Amino acid sequence: MKNDLTMANEMLEEEFKSSHQDLVGMEVSTHDEKMDASIKMEEAEMPKRKEKQGMTTRKSVDFAILPPTKRSRPSPELTLRQALEAISTAVGKEDRLQAIQKTRETLAHEDQGLHNEELSSAADAVLTKHLAFLLFCAATTRSEQVPTGQGGSSNVDNITLELSITLESLESVYRASSETVGSSFKRVGTELVHGVLQALNRELNRRISQHQVVEELREHIGEVQENAEDEKEEKSPEQRDEPQLLKTPSEREVVPDYTPSLEGDTLIHKATRILGHFARVGEATKPLAHHPGLLGTLLKIITLFPYDRIPWEARLSALWTIANLGCNGENMQMMVCTPGLVDALIQVSCRNLHPGDPVETTIDVLRGRSIASRCLLNLSWAPENKIVLGQQAALVDLLAELAVHRHAPLSKSRTVREILLTTRRHAIGALRNLAAAPRRSKLLLCGYKNGHLLSVLTDAALNDGDQAVKDRAFAAINNLAIHDTAEQIVNHPALVMALKDVLLSAEEDERDNMMSQDPKEEGTPKAHASKTLLVLERSISPDSPAYENLRELLDALNPSTATDEESEEEMIQVTHATAV
Q: pTM of the full predicted structure?
């Protein structure tokens, strides 16, 4: 019995040690036959160990240990191919939703090179076809509410949910390089823009109609309450105290509290971003601007009121797209002639700000003004547009106000200060372009509100801390200076003082201005002021009443000439006195 226990303990100890020893330096065999032979030899030596207790010799066991198979990392191309194949084969609602959600997850990254590869793999074509299929389903079938727990809001239908995810996937893949996006536009641009506009108008029209229903209900309830009050006043005191069987409905009880779905907001935001991606491709700006219904849809997004019915990012994307389309010279005249475009830019720039507004609202308004002024700057380059835009009083007022707008809520923020500076540069640049117009337009601008524009340009030239703003202000003054406007310019003493200051500035300041000047700008403030002075000197005669203001400027620039003239005058007076 004792020997059996000893043998059992030795077997357990041997098994534990053989399964937990260091394998370094051991001979590793990959053959199962060799392993079986070693085990048989171990069993044959067991009786000898029993006889020689305490002097046992343990023999190691060779295990067939194979290195684990290395798991290959799935390539993004393979994963994308699987996702796109799932979209191509999915027809049912659940299958479509799962496939497009998988695609969105695959494309959600910031690697531009990988997005280039995804577009090269025809991701744009597959998603464009899927978008067209969803729009067909939306037009031919009745949408159903998305069941709770399937990734949608409580008030979103299944088609809107799928459209928003599809457009989100498309926007992600178009974060590629401009060259790759341009190639994609040539392949699917027309069809995709058509689908994007359909999806946008579907969501916008639904929001507009729902807002109209809410407003009509509120108006109806207001009339009912007003009639009830009138009837109550007509009754006698005894009748007023009688209990009413019918209760007048309140606005809160009847008017539904409609809140746009998050999926609808995503749809509008991503759709406008897709159009913005195409607008950064120079070759695509002309066909994009001339696409039927595109400008009208963008203007609808910009001007839709109340403004909180549209995501503020979508409004800025729409403005940015219009501004980029205006960079193409072939689009400028067409866009100015588009009904409501200039009015929409003025409207979005005239939104008021209040100190208690949220940060998002502040950025929305300020950025909207900046982008709108950039769009007006682009459109004002075309010679045909200078006269048309210069004759719109509301536009001139807007540009004059933005040109000297230096303070706003959150002005301590660096971002806000940069936005205000960019806005001033664009606005003063647009005024400079409008001033480079025929004689009639120059007269109209100089005489506008008794020289209000000249006062604005003087303020910018004297008081703005940015050199680019000063440069453009003096360029605008130079563009306005002709024979017929010379007296109007001289009759502004502050403007003459601004010319005097820049003409008397040191040469070192001039060199600094040259170094800080935008390479695209022509001339410097001193050069513009010199040209302006030359026009004024040639246009105003010494017998003109306005010559006195100009003479102060000329005397300051040529003190020797002024001294000579005074000496001649004194000599004449002395000679006259002697003769007498």
A: 0.77
